[in-house]
Amino acid sequence: MSGSTVLIVDDEQSLARSAKAFLADHGYEAEVAVTGEQALDLLATLQPDVVFADVRLPGMSGLDLLRRIRAFDPVIPVIMLTAYGSIEGAVEAVKLGAFDYVKKPVDLEELKLLADRARETRLLKQELSYYRRRATTDVGFEGLVGESRAVQAVLERARQIAALDETPPVLLTGETGTGKGLLARAIHAAGARATKPFIEVNCTALPATLMEAELFGHERGAFTDAKESKPGLVEAAEGGFLFLDEIGDVDLAVQGKLLRVIEERAVRRVGSVRERRVDVRIMAATNRDLERAVGEERFRKDLYFRLAVIVLDVPPLRERGDDVLLLTEHFLRAFNAKYGKVVRELSAAARDLLLSYPWPGNVRELSHVIERAVLWSRGPTLDVEHLSLTRPVGGTDHGDAAKPVDTATLPQREKTMIEQALREAGGNQTKAAQRLGISRDTLRYRLKKFGL
Ligand SMILES: Nc1ncnc2c1ncn2[C@@H]1O[C@H](COP(=O)(O)OP(=O)(O)OP(=O)(O)O)[C@@H](O)[C@H]1O
Ligand SMILES: [Mg+2]
């Protein structure tokens, strides 16, 4: 619960003081206000995550206070404290949007549990709009197929990392489609933080200012649309992992703030003067040469060094020997089940082809190739004709794809470019769209139009 702030509004000093001390012992920063008016004054500077308010207050009533808090920020959870005889007020308060109520004399343990729950509910509401994966949907390391030395070496280190609760950030490097995302989720799922959040942020997807607000949250009024304050993804990852995918695409301004999160273990919401402590482990992934980006001053050197303390370099598929065949079997099983097919074996020629193909899109490309092959198959044997490999075996980048373009009509040219971009992006539509300089919707429309 570190970094969460609670505001207690009660004129009963002894209760307020003991509640404050108890919550502080449990990692909350707690403040006390004795009147509703004072509470409202504190609200803006304190930005509490949870408010406890007595129904009966001198001056402004608890219910009025609740209304005013609601008007100020519709999402701060407010928990009412009720003495014998004011229970109706509490029920009324819940109808007005209070999170819950507690009866006096207050059980401090109950108070703390409610604060935890209120805070979690709030974070959850925020988190649900994002990609949150839990241990139940993760398979851990069992889902990672590969027996080659190259893969086992990486898995060995990944297991060690997963076993530790505290490590410096982990940087996953490797070509597109090698399984960096899968490995990050496995590290989360195999460790002590498995039941805590795994928040994945695709750093490519957002422009800098939005990215900043998403990551670090913002206070009400921080910018025109900020009608209420909102914790960012860093706070949402509390206790768990923040996975920064495509870290190389993060804007320089945001890079500096990320460094602070790593070094100070604190975030400051946009428009806030207050730092909030966070307990979050950080993993980052990139398929680009970060060192070169540092040389070109597109990536902060200090952040790079901070991230590069532990590097897991995921090898390309072409360096994994027979793993190609193991993965092929793995994908055959999966797609047979998905499409109700019975492809069980590989012809010798298909096997040779799979082993000699350079796999520029790595495991992702292989899975797509096998998916198509299973879809088109008629019998139990998978043969070369089912494998629609797009690059000549042993071939390097580019090459033939550009040649027929010269004489092609515009739509043909477009189609070729789209196919190529998709291939180079390992089938990832977002990335392909970026390469082409068009929006993802435009790409989807074209894909449909060309029947791709
Ligand atoms: N060792 C593996 N065993 C089984 N499936 C794998 C393995 N490695 C990758 N995959 C699968 O291949 C696909 C691509 O993996 P993933 O998205 O993790 O790659 P990535 O390295 O993050 O790629 P990018 O850099 O493009 O984001 C996913 O569907 C993933 O489940
Ligand atoms: Mg990825």
Labels describing this entry:
18 helices; Rossmann fold; alpha/beta; 14% strand; 452 residues; elongated; binds adenosine-5'-triphosphate; binds magnesium ion; Helicase, Ruva Protein, domain 3
Describe the structure.
There is one protein chain. This protein has 452 residues and is of the alpha/beta class. The protein folds into four domains: 4-127, Rossmann fold; 135-313, Rossmann fold (3-Layer(aba) Sandwich); 319-386, Helicase, Ruva Protein, domain 3; 399-449, Arc Repressor Mutant, subunit A (Orthogonal Bundle), CATH 1.10.10.60. It is 45% helix and 14% strand. The radius of gyration is 27 Å and the shape is elongated. Mean pLDDT is 86; it is low at 128-138 and 394-407. Residues 180-181, 245, 285 line the site of magnesium ion (MG).
Short description:
By secondary structure, the chain is of the alpha/beta class. The chain contains 18 helices and 16 strands. The protein folds into four domains: 4-127, 3-Layer(aba) Sandwich (Rossmann fold), CATH 3.40.50; 135-313, Rossmann fold; 319-386, Orthogonal Bundle (Helicase, Ruva Protein, domain 3), CATH 1.10.8.60; 399-449, Arc Repressor Mutant, subunit A (Orthogonal Bundle), CATH 1.10.10.
What topology emerges from the helices and strands here?
Layout: E1 4-9, H1 13-25, E2 28-33, H2 36-46, E3 50-54, H3 62-72, E4 78-82, H4 87-95, E5 100-103, H5 108-127, H6 149-163, E6 170-173, H7 180-190, E7 198-202, H8 208-216, E8 217-218, E9 230-231, H9 233-236, E10 241-245, H10 252-264, E11 266-268, E12 275-277, E13 281-286, H11 290-295, H12 301-307, E14 310-313, H13 323-339, E15 345-346, H14 348-356, H15 362-376, E16 381-382, H16 410-424, H17 429-436, H18 440-449
Helix pairs in contact: 1-5, 2-3, 6-7, 13-15, 16-17, 17-18
The chain binds adenosine-5'-triphosphate and magnesium ion.
